[in-house]
């Protein structure tokens, strides 16, 4: 049986990636409070990978309950430096602080994806990319953030690899789509396995 697809995300980046891959879907943004879920006693001790999976699953299930008989694609991404988890910066000053802390070091982007149907998880996956940021001068960082403006606040870490953010890095290990927030190849593979897209 072919089920309609629903993307449980307000991210324009995830939407664009799925559209570019030829998927037909509707968008229904999840109605959850991510920080509240993180603060639950059962979730406080979660590592960054499990936290990404937990948030991705919460989004998929939330939207799945409103869209019966649809396969819902939920996603979440955490940025971790060791066990420290970074969130989207609230303003450019906070973005600058985050970027200065990350420079010269290797951090992980943990991109989780979940498929849910009628409130139950069908499949989940976490792709991990290792991102090594080069050391830059304060003047370079100031100029970068001035050019980026509010766009720096749209992604965790304050950079967008598909744009000028690529200049911040000296090495990347991992899948490009995982960096952008969707482990796309595993997702497409699972949708084929489920018979939702052509072999």
Summarize the structure.
By secondary structure, the protein is of the alpha/beta class. The chain has helices at residues 12-20, 34-39, 48-66, 92-102, 138-148, 176-180, 184-193, and strands spanning 5-8, 26-27, 71-81, 84-86, 106-117, 120-133, 169-173.
Can you tell me about this structure?
By secondary structure, this protein is α/β, with parallel strands linked by helices. It has one domain (5-193): Maf protein. Helices cover 36% and strands 26% of the residues. The chain is built from seven helices and seven strands; from the N terminus they run βαβααββαββαβαα. The protein has helices at 12-20, 34-39, 48-66, 92-102, 138-148, 176-180, 184-193; strands at 5-8, 26-27, 71-81, 84-86, 106-117, 120-133, 169-173. Strands 1, 2, 3, 4, 5, 6 and 7 form a seven-stranded mixed beta sheet that branches. α4 (92-102) packs across α5 (138-148). The mean pLDDT is 94.
Mean pLDDT: 94
Number of strands: 7
Low-confidence stretches: none
Tell me the number of helical segments per DSSP (H or I, 4 or more residues long). Answer: 7
- What is the CATH-assigned architecture? Alpha-Beta Complex
Q: What is the C-level CATH assignment?
A: Alpha Beta
Largest sheet: 7 strands, mixed
Fold-level CATH name:
Maf protein
What portion of residues belong to β-strands? 25-35%
Span between N and C termini? 15 Å
Please state the CA-atom Rg, rounded to the nearest Å: 17 Å
Q: What is the molecular shape? A: globular
The percentage helix is 25-40%
Q: Class by helix and strand content?
A: alpha/beta
**SSE pattern, N- to C-terminal:** EHEHHEEHEEHEHH
Number of domains: 1
